[in-house]
């Protein structure tokens, strides 16, 4: 049992004979190296993909058939296909990006966004918010078909990083400050962002919901040491909007997988209460994210995905050390665990030898 069968068994808690494995979504340079190793050719970018990438922070340029072939070569059981990480899915007639947050191209998280100085909700209301009608799911649907023909599970839906989009509209430091000084402005902007995602996901799940093993969305809420906001502000500025998105995903009968990097141990019980079924990527070196601690508290409540350290082990360890760690985590987390890197985007400093070692130990 591998591929879609094993992943869906894990999500249903049917106690499969082995753990699942997900390669993640390697950066473009890493994917080029891995594809070259297996003799897999990547498809050329279209003109609209090239145009959209100019306004994008995507780490992987083109998601498609090459990803399916790479997954097959490495015995990866699932793939993630989202219109939001497909550079050809957004088709604004004037070339305007989905989230027009800056006057100039973004170069840092702290860079001022268009609402950096905003103190009046009316300015938020008057903004030219994006229209989901410019989304084109054609390539995403084709990618899902490729994966299903290969027997792989698919995670999908819009990525819905409303927390990060709000950060960009204000600039990260301004965003956190305005939670104190102009909370109504922050809430109004977050409401508009979330409403876009709710309508976009409605269109998305109407088209592809019955082909997905789980909805998958992400907001990085932790640093290496702690949450980025207080528990109080999580409850005020993040949780209500997350609940709307999760409830919508559940209304389509989907399992819900959430991605959040960082030290998020303190809010995992609240994430469970909000309705998530699986948590990714279990950042191995973040504070309080030790596998023993996560397993003790949450392995009976969540599918756990990730945990294979991308900060030290995968870039700098030996293949044998990688295998030993994979086996250790499988023992700790038990049957409801999908082996995967502790960040979805492997960088080019992770050798193919270590990726193969991770795969071999995951599926043995």
TrEMBL record:
InterPro entries: Methanogen_methyltrans, UROD/MetE-like_sf, Uroporphyrinogen_deCOase. It holds the Pfam family URO-D. SUPFAM superfamilies: UROD/MetE-like. Residues 120-362 form the Uroporphyrinogen decarboxylase (URO-D) domain. PANTHER family: METHYLCOBAMIDE:COM METHYLTRANSFERASE MTBA (PTHR47099). This is Uroporphyrinogen decarboxylase (URO-D) domain-containing protein. It comes from Christensenella tenuis.
